[in-house]
What does this fold into?
Amino acid sequence: MHNSTYQLFITLGILVANCINFGTEKRTNTGSWRIPMGVSFIWVLILGVGIAFFPESPRYDYRHGREEQAKRTMIKLYGVSDNHRVVAEELAEIKEKHEEELVHRGEPWWKMFTGPRMLYRIALGMSLQSLQQLTGAVRF
It folds into this structure.
């Protein structure tokens, strides 16, 4: 459901952009490119101001010693009670992953390439993403 909604909004954004471009293409002054650029800045401002009202992620809060805030964020996000099973399970997972990260903190970043077939996996993922972007297609 989320992917199709995301795809719908991307497609609607492309439609709106094309409509704005179509509406300004016959202008003989600099408005032919300034108007579409100006409209795009409106969305940037909306997103930039809106992000200031978002809470930190539960993982970020937990890593910085704010476990109760992490729990409140998940309760609000999921719309469940404070003793719900999902919140307890996710907090336990966050704790487990955080402790695992602390154990492996001193390891160098290049070790990610040394696991079984990891170099192949990383190269494949990077190639697929790059080639998908080069086609101009939007896929999920």
User: Anything to note?
Assistant: The CA atoms of residues 43 and 49 lie 10 Å apart. The mean pLDDT is 89. The two ends are 12 Å apart (CA to CA).
